[in-house]
Amino acid sequence: MAVVVPKFSSIQYDGTNGAEVVAVSALWTLVSDDGTTLVFTDVESQWILTSGSWLLWAGSNPSFPSQKLSNTDYLAFFHELV
Protein backbone atom coordinates (compact mmCIF):
# COMPACT_ATOMS: atom_id res chain seq x y z
CA MET A 1 0.00 0.00 0.00
CA ALA A 2 1.31 3.43 -0.92
CA VAL A 3 1.63 6.28 1.53
CA VAL A 4 -0.04 9.39 0.13
CA VAL A 5 0.79 12.94 1.19
CA PRO A 6 -1.51 15.73 0.02
CA LYS A 7 0.29 18.41 -1.96
CA PHE A 8 0.00 21.96 -0.70
CA SER A 9 1.90 24.95 -1.96
CA SER A 10 2.49 28.04 0.14
CA ILE A 11 3.84 31.57 0.17
CA GLN A 12 4.48 33.87 3.10
CA TYR A 13 3.53 37.54 3.00
CA ASP A 14 6.39 39.42 4.64
CA GLY A 15 5.18 42.98 4.15
CA THR A 16 7.41 43.59 1.12
CA ASN A 17 6.23 40.93 -1.32
CA GLY A 18 2.54 41.68 -1.85
CA ALA A 19 2.95 41.89 -5.63
CA GLU A 20 4.74 38.53 -5.62
CA VAL A 21 1.96 36.91 -3.57
CA VAL A 22 -0.77 38.23 -5.85
CA ALA A 23 1.22 37.21 -8.96
CA VAL A 24 0.93 33.54 -7.94
CA SER A 25 -2.39 33.33 -9.78
CA ALA A 26 -3.72 35.24 -12.78
CA LEU A 27 -7.13 35.10 -11.06
CA TRP A 28 -6.00 37.11 -8.02
CA THR A 29 -6.39 40.87 -8.00
CA LEU A 30 -4.56 43.23 -5.66
CA VAL A 31 -6.86 45.48 -3.65
CA SER A 32 -4.31 47.06 -1.29
CA ASP A 33 -0.91 46.50 0.27
CA ASP A 34 0.36 48.87 2.95
CA GLY A 35 3.33 46.77 4.04
CA THR A 36 1.42 45.45 7.06
CA THR A 37 -1.76 44.09 5.49
CA LEU A 38 -2.26 42.64 2.02
CA VAL A 39 -5.79 42.54 0.62
CA PHE A 40 -6.58 40.71 -2.62
CA THR A 41 -9.50 38.97 -4.26
CA ASP A 42 -9.89 35.71 -6.11
CA VAL A 43 -12.95 34.81 -8.17
CA GLU A 44 -15.01 34.05 -5.03
CA SER A 45 -13.55 35.79 -1.99
CA GLN A 46 -11.53 38.60 -0.51
CA TRP A 47 -8.38 37.58 1.35
CA ILE A 48 -6.65 39.61 4.05
CA LEU A 49 -3.12 38.65 5.05
CA THR A 50 -1.11 40.34 7.77
CA SER A 51 2.67 40.47 7.59
CA GLY A 52 4.08 37.06 8.53
CA SER A 53 0.96 35.14 7.44
CA TRP A 54 1.11 32.18 5.10
CA LEU A 55 -1.27 31.41 2.24
CA LEU A 56 -1.79 27.78 1.21
CA TRP A 57 -3.48 26.15 -1.75
CA ALA A 58 -4.00 22.52 -2.65
CA GLY A 59 -2.33 20.98 -5.67
CA SER A 60 -0.58 22.94 -8.35
CA ASN A 61 -3.48 25.28 -9.18
CA PRO A 62 -3.43 28.35 -6.92
CA SER A 63 -6.67 29.80 -8.32
CA PHE A 64 -8.53 29.07 -5.10
CA PRO A 65 -6.50 29.50 -1.91
CA SER A 66 -7.49 26.98 0.74
CA GLN A 67 -6.41 28.68 3.94
CA LYS A 68 -4.34 31.36 5.59
CA LEU A 69 -2.29 30.70 8.70
CA SER A 70 -0.20 32.64 11.15
CA ASN A 71 3.50 31.86 11.09
CA THR A 72 3.14 29.98 14.41
CA ASP A 73 0.32 27.77 13.11
CA TYR A 74 2.07 27.19 9.79
CA LEU A 75 5.22 25.98 11.53
CA ALA A 76 3.17 23.84 13.95
CA PHE A 77 1.08 22.06 11.29
CA PHE A 78 3.27 21.83 8.19
CA HIS A 79 6.75 20.64 7.30
CA GLU A 80 8.24 21.94 4.08
CA LEU A 81 9.69 19.39 1.67
CA VAL A 82 12.30 20.76 -0.69
Notes on the protein architecture:
- The protein is built from two helices and six strands, in the order βαβββββα.
- It is of the alpha+beta class and 82 residues long.
- The protein has one domain (8-77).
- The two termini are 24 Å apart.
- The mean pLDDT is 88.
Structural class: alpha+beta
**Major sheet:** 3 strands, antiparallel
Q: Please write the string of helix (H) and strand (E) elements.
A: EHEEEEEH
Shape: globular
The Rg value, from CA coordinates, equals: 13 Å
Number of strands: 6
- Helix proportion of residues, in percent? 10-25%
Side by side, the strands of the main sheet go 1-5-6
Give the rounded overall mean pLDDT. 88
Q: What count of domains describes the coordinates? A: 1
N-to-C span: 24 Å
Q: Tally the helices: what do you get?
A: 2
User: Which regions have little confidence, pLDDT < 50, spanning 5+ residues?
Assistant: none
Assess the beta-strand content as a share of residues: 25-35%
Offer a concise description of the structure.
By secondary structure, this protein is of the alpha+beta class.
What key attributes describe this structure?
6 strands, alpha+beta, three-stranded antiparallel β-sheet, 82 residues
Q: Strands, helices and their partners?
A:
Elements: E1 8-12, H1 18-22, E2 29-33, E3 37-41, E4 46-50, E5 54-58, E6 67-69, H2 71-77
